[in-house]
Amino acid sequence: MLAPMAFKLPESVLVVIHTPRLDVLLLERVGTGYWQSVTGSREPDDADLAATARRELREETGLSFGTLADWRVTNRYEIWPQWRARYAPGVTHNTEHVFGFTVPEPKVATLDPAEHVSHMWMPWQDAMTKVFSPTNRDAIWQLPRRVIGHRDGA
Predict the structure, then answer these.
(1) What is the rounded (10 degree) CA torsion for 76, 81, 85, 87?
(2) In angstroms, how far apart are the furthest CA atoms of the chain?
(3) Where do the structural domains in the chain lie, given as residue ranges?
(4) CA atoms within 13 Å, Cβ hemisphere of 125
(5) Fewer beta carbons under 10 A from the terminal one: N or C of the chain?
(6) What pLDDT digit, counting tens, does each position of 40-60 carry?
(7) Is 121 helix (H, G, I), strand (E, B) or coil?
(8) Please, which pLDDT band fits residue 138 given cuts at 50, 70 and 90?
């Protein structure tokens, strides 16, 4: 007998991976052409949201060495209708928690081919205009203010 399908929890993380010079890693989703930062839903076994962020970083990029920072930013948005079947009946909104992950320099990401087909590093200004999600765009826009001591042209 098959186990019943577990529904996704309507709580997720968005992790902006960046260098101190504010180069940002973006991932291209399979079959959509959409570019994004690391995202993923909290799982029941995750101890907390930081654990979710670390798990998603490993799964989606293979990156584990860097500094994870909880930005204490929460977004609530409507789940697109085509993705609602993944959630329990009646769930229409997701709560997203934003994190930053600093690496010393651009690294090659090891992608999960079921999720992403390509990746690229680019300056934050370009990354902000390339992502499809408004919450991802807003998070990247906040990046210069969140990196202590950063000045344009540094």
Answers:
(1) 10
(2) 61
(3) 11-146
(4) 2
(5) N
(6) 999 999 999 999 999 999 999
(7) strand
(8) very high
Query: What would the pLDDT profile of 86-130 be if each residue is shown by its tens digit?
Result: 999 999 999 999 999 999 999 999 999 999 999 999 999 999 999
The alpha carbon torsion through 16, 94, 52, 105 (nearest 10 deg) reads -10
How far is the C-alpha of 43 from the C-alpha of 127, rounded, in Å?
Answer: 28
Dihedral, 128, 107, 37, 125 alpha carbons, nearest 10? 0
The DSSP element (H or E) to which 55 belongs, if any, is helix 49-61
Token pair, residue 140, equals: 């990247």
Query: What confidence tier does 154 reach under pLDDT thresholds 50, 70, 90?
Result: very low
Residue type, 131: V
- The radius of gyration of the chain's CA atoms, rounded to the nearest angstrom, is 16
